[in-house]
Sequence to fold (867 residues):
Amino acid sequence: MNIVKVYLVMCFVLLPLRKSFSQQVSPEYPVLKHYDQDHLAKIAMGIGGIGTGTISIGGRGDLRYCEIMNRPGIEDPTSINKNDLGSIAPVFCLYTRTGNGPSISKSLIGPLETYEYEHEIGTPVKNHGLPRFRHASFDAAYPFGQVHLSDENMPLDVTIKAFNPLVPGDADASGIPIAVLHFVLTNKTSKTVSASICGVMDNFIGINGEKLKTDGIGELRSYGAKDNINEFRNENGLSGIFMYSDSVDKKDEAWGTIALSTPNCNRISYKTSVSALDLNSGTGILSFWDDFSDDGMLVNKQYNQPDKPTAALASYIEIPPNDFREVTFYITWHFPNRYGWSDTIVGNYYTTRYADAWDVIKKTYPVIPVLESRTLSFVHAFLISDLPEPVKEAALFNVSTLRSETVFRSADGKMFGWEGVFNREGAGFGSCTHVWNYEQATAFLFGDLAKTMRDVEFEYSTDSSGKMSFRTSLPLTKARGFPFAAADGQMGAIMKMYREWQLSGDDNFLKIRWPAIKKALSFAWIPHGWDSDSDGVMEGCQHNTMDVEYYGPNPQMQLWYLGALKAAETMANYLGDKRYAAKCTRIFSAGSKWTDKNLFNGEYYVQDIRPPGKIENINPALVVGMGSSNFSNPEFQLGNGCLVDQLVGQFMAHICGLGYLVDSAHVRTTLKSIMQYNYRPELFDHFSNLRSFAMDGESGLLMAEYPSGRPTFPFPYFNEIMTGFEYVAAIGMLYEDQTDEGMLCIKNIRDRFDGRKRNPFDEIEWGHHYARAMASWGAVLAISGFQYSGVTKEMSFREQPGTWFWSNGYSWGTVNVTENSNDYKVNLEVLKGGLRLMNFKLGGKNKAFKKELTIIEGTSTNFYIKK
Fold:
């Protein structure tokens, strides 16, 4: 439902049932995971929409990582330099006065960890000089986060409730550049408490990660902001500070606008600039604190604003004894100049919907209750499902990557992604196919966005020969500027095309892309290519997600290839392309049999290394140059190793409903071998020559193990542990009913991201917010058994009682299955979108309800299936 429809629903249905905005209280937020005071330091939950960037709320209530200017802005929260002395980072503060007693003021931030105290210049963290609350904890059910603050010396307990709308199937509602912050103030005393919440924020327009440069003596200094302007506004039921700049280059990626606002139902006061003096001298924060802590009201003085003026906005309220009140603030932004990974502006879709940051809040403010309600509906439906908590956490919390700077949408609405992001720049450009192959969240939550990625791959990135550039260049007129194909990336793209067609039921989408799909698969058969003799075996040079070239058949590429063949066979038959379908059938059958006979060693699948001899024996489009240059005896191969994601093609085939690609008994044995050989209950004795994503007493699955002896130089990442690959193995185990083993692996991952050691909303691989970790959504599918085809209008689940969340990328809801003596009672509810079904299955083929069903949004239906 778009914003206009939401607004109409609210006006005619919801608003008459609600109190006025001045009396509004936000609904109760759900909790999936609780983090105590010892597990807060690393928490940074991004608040922002898909393709908009985010502002993160820390586990202690601090605001950090203002990544809203078209690039990452991640930094170590303990990092401080001399340029930060006396400055104010974005922060909210609280003034209190109980009855006629003395006032007490604090920042709305909890205490530091022990390791954060020491720093060479005595300033351990941002806003180090502000008083803090003694006690803090954090509750999360993404995208809802709650910070709980308390202090024996304060009359009020405070809960900060933060969120940004997230409504599966509605990318517009889920792509709003806003951070919503509700402050719930609970009076613990028997007297009325006067209170004021104040938001303090620099106008840092013109400064993003690119503008942080090192000066001659090794200190980070900010450049870019000049003569920025803060303007107080009061309109449409809102008061706030509108931040802009007339001097920053209007083509700069850091040019745009910001707004800090609050409903004007309370007594509002403000400062457009806290001081006329240099804030680095400490006078800015001193001037602000003296003013605010005096009576909770701000006095605006007409200073000549500095280049980066600091604004403050306060909302004053009275809280009766033993009662509570709520104060809400919004941060909105608008930065149109997205360059992506190009030297040309490709724009931001979200900025085409709003004129500036103030327009964002003007249009969004009236519909926030509805957006909040729809987001709650999604999260509640997901949380009531009978999924293990580690699966819920892994799937839901990793959806945050879709709203990080890893993802952006160009002005025409197409979705693109880095692999991940470094602190101040993207990591791995081009919507890298062999990385994005793994993630499942986009397709099952935002199908239209997934389709735009397939459009780019097959319309722009694939040339007339069928070669797909596995990194798409921008602008799209230069999409094939990176002239290399990746074996896993290209075959996976064909499987993803099949997935998107099935979930959407959009035959036209398939018909338009079918010529390019055929070319992309047929590219495997070119001379000196992956499978030049079309025998179903990838013998040629195979660049892949290990950032090397494999020479000779190996399970990772081979199963992607078999999956692409099987998907293409089904698509060809549907479209009446019988000759091509028959060719795919023949090649698949031969390749599948060969793989089981020649690569399965009795425990798992291995690589048959076949050196090309010389570079002339390789098609030039296949050698990226990141692997071995020794073509007679190449290094960096898998060889006899037991690879953690050797069954990744089978993982995808299960998700797509394509069945087994190789012998099912071999699949089950292989997964058991991965647990036997790759699993490490602890890592105190483990050596890693590259990166360490898990350490010491932590548990995980190694990328590869060599039970019969390791090559001198295997593929580079062999002794690392990375979550996206672990999820593939774990989810494979879940599909094969090796549930205890699969759940142990998923739990181990989430235990590592515990808030103290790592951020629960940031599974790192090559960069923060790594896209591959969104493979975790596959665990939801594996445990519930959810399959959906919009083509045949079929839905299926495992034959098991329980309540399950389902989403096909366009509509979503729940299904409840109750087991009786002779049958199953099924209640199917649609909470968003609509659903037309011809067949509903539980487990086996004979256990089905075959009748046309049409279920509209907000309704449910009951039926029975015989055992």
Observations:
- The first helix runs from residue 3 to 14.
- The chain has a mean pLDDT of 92.
- The CA atoms of residues 201 and 796 lie 50 Å apart.
- The first strand starts at residue 33 and ends at 35.
